[in-house]
Every structure is written in structure tokens, then in C-alpha cells.
Predict the structure.
Amino acid sequence: MAGVAVGYLTAFFILNLEFAVNYVASLPPSFILFLLPLGILVSTLSIAFFAPDARGHGTEKVIESIHQRDGWIDVKVIPVKLFTTIVTLAVGGSAGKEGPAAQIGAGMTSFLAQYLGFNSIDRKKLVVCGISAGFSAVFGTPVAGAIFGLEVLYIGQIYYDVMLPSFISGIVSYHVAHHMGLKYMSFTLSCLPGVFDTASYLIYVLAGAFFGIVALIHMETLFMTEKFFQRIKINFVFKAILGSGALLLLASILGRRYLGLGTDIIEGALKGESVPYLDFLWKSIFTSITLSCGGSGGIVTPIFFIGATSGITFAGLFGQNAMLFGPLGFVAVLAACANTPIAATIMAIELFGSKVAAIAAITCITAFFVSGHRSVYPSQILARPKSPVLKLEEQVSVDRASTKADLLDLRMVSFFSRMIHLIRKFFHSYKG
């Protein structure tokens, strides 16, 4: 039931979004000067008066509802989120489409659970299925979507008891959405190295570290921009006007490539096409302003933009094949930002073929570790530390987690410290 309902609703959302985006694109370019502020303002007012939980990038509110409200979601979120996201993206706001799909799916399954009289435990399980179904239907990756819904709730823990229904809902949702006419991108990588040697391994680890740093930059940009808008003591209407004005000013300087979904830029980067070296940074800034000033949308599609373009940047800096590192950045930055390395690796396999599995796993897991205990979803629960070096005081949400690094717990550091101690002891005994 969850898969069918969310599949149809997600297809309805995406098809209407595509229609709206294409319609606005057919208008004279000068129309963006008043359409963007108007669209952001309409989105802000709709959310403020009808469904405050529809604010932001969607998936975060679903995670929060699971951890803090036993999966209860106001059904009004569904139409409001659908409408405000279409408006925001159609007029050029920089956001994504997966967060709304996940929130719409979770809202639908929460309503189903309440209507059928489920208890709080089963309601939470069904809402997880809604996340998985929404993600699967949007990106056409049913297995990665199912794992994403399970993996995104906690760092270091997975809801194994929801695995079967999550897979069923994700796969059913994908097939329903595909039947409704949704088209999905798919690339076969023909540039994979024939030999997996030590030098190649080190390059993939280095790439993972680079993508982890890119993810950290993106997360800090999001949080700093959000705090900036929160500290401005003006009415939310004026914040919407201020944010849309900033977007128009930046677009007049940098061009319109960072407005909207940016799917054409993503597809070009996945094919190895060259991009400006700071594409990933500018997209992060545009997205942060859009979501902080009142726009509505997801966060994963911008992460894909940032990941794919940063992959091209890495390839250019280190003399690597752009057709390989664009796709690797596409999934690795997601793994680092959302703390979902398993789902990101499986997504690479579903989109780019099984031969990329080992390489994708190395880059995704490295990026996941480098990003530390940070997340684009502050309500994500930090259940286990990523490394014994990172000390976790208690199991809390990422935004309240208190962690500190202790390099002395690294086995290599401990080994060398013991060796130094033994050498000193030997010299002292020799002198004696």
C-alpha cells in the first residue's frame, strides 16, 4: 500500500514539477526578475500559514518526526510541500526534489498508519517505508532508496526490522512511478581502470578525502547561512525578498547555471564535461540562500550537483579521468553529507553498473569518515562514533552531539608511542 500510494503521488509531483519548470523556461528571461521573488514569497507565506513543518528541505523534518513524535506528520504537509516545492523550483530557486518526495511519502504513510489505527512503533516503521518509497521513485534506484530510508535515521545503526517492508515499498514505488511515465538517468562507465593497483587505490582514497572536505564545506555553508537569516530581526516576508534579491544579484554576476535543479549540469558532469573549478561552492551558496530565506525543496539534488562538479574539479587538479571521478563525486558527497555510505555505494552500482562497486565503496566510505560527526540532517541520531578516535559522550542528535578527537587511540599512534618508549628504555639501560 505504501509503495503504490507514494509511487503515484511522487509521479504526480515530478510530472507537474517538470511541466512548471518547462513553462517558466519558455517565458522571456527577463521574467525571472519578478518571478523569483514572487515565487519565494508565495512559498514562504504558504508554509507559514498552512503547514510550518513543510519549511526547509523535507527529509530533515521526517527524521525529526520519527525520533521526536513517533512518526506523526500533519497530513496538510503533503499538498503544501508539493505546491511550494514546485513554485520554488519553477521560478529558479536552487533546491532538490527528493526531500519533498520523502516528506510527501512519509506524510502519506503516517496518515495511512493513523487511519488504520497502528501503534506508535508500527507507525514509525511505515513512515520509514514512506522515505524509502519516495527516494526510490524520484531517482529510480529502488535498492539504494530502500537502504537510504533505513540508514539515514542513525549514524552507526540500521533498522533491520524494517528492512523487508522498506525494500517492498521502495521497489513497488519505483515500478509504479516508472509506469506513470517518469524517466530516469543511467550511465554505463566505460572508463574503469583494468588494473586495480596500489597507486589507483591511493588516488581513490585521496578522492574520498577530497569529497569529504567538499561535503564539510557544503554543510557549514548551509548552517552558517541559516543562522545568518535567523539572526536578522526582520519579518519573514522581508527575509524572502532579501534572499531572492541576493540570488538575483549572484545570478547577474555568475549566470543562471546555479538556479533551479541543475540537472543538465549534473548530467554533463557525469559525462566528464568540463565545469568551472568552483561550481560546487557556488551551488552550495545558492542552495543555502534559497532554503534559508523561505524557499522549499530538497537537498540531495544540489548535493548531486556539488558532488559531480567537484569530481570534475578533482580530476582536473590531479590529472585523472573526469568521466570516472564525476560519477564518484556524485555518490561520495552524498555519503558524506547524509552519512549513508552503503546507500550511496549501491546507488553507484544501480546507476553506473556493477563494475564500479569497489571503487565507489572506497571513495564513499572514505568521504563518510572524513566528514566526521556532521550531517545535513541535524536530527539524525549519532548512535555509534565513526572511529574510536572520535569520542562520543552520549547517544544524541547530531546537532547536540559532543565529540572530541583523541589521536592516542589510533593503533598506529599507540604502536609508535610504545616503540619510542622501548627505545628510550633501551638507551637508558645501555647508559646504565
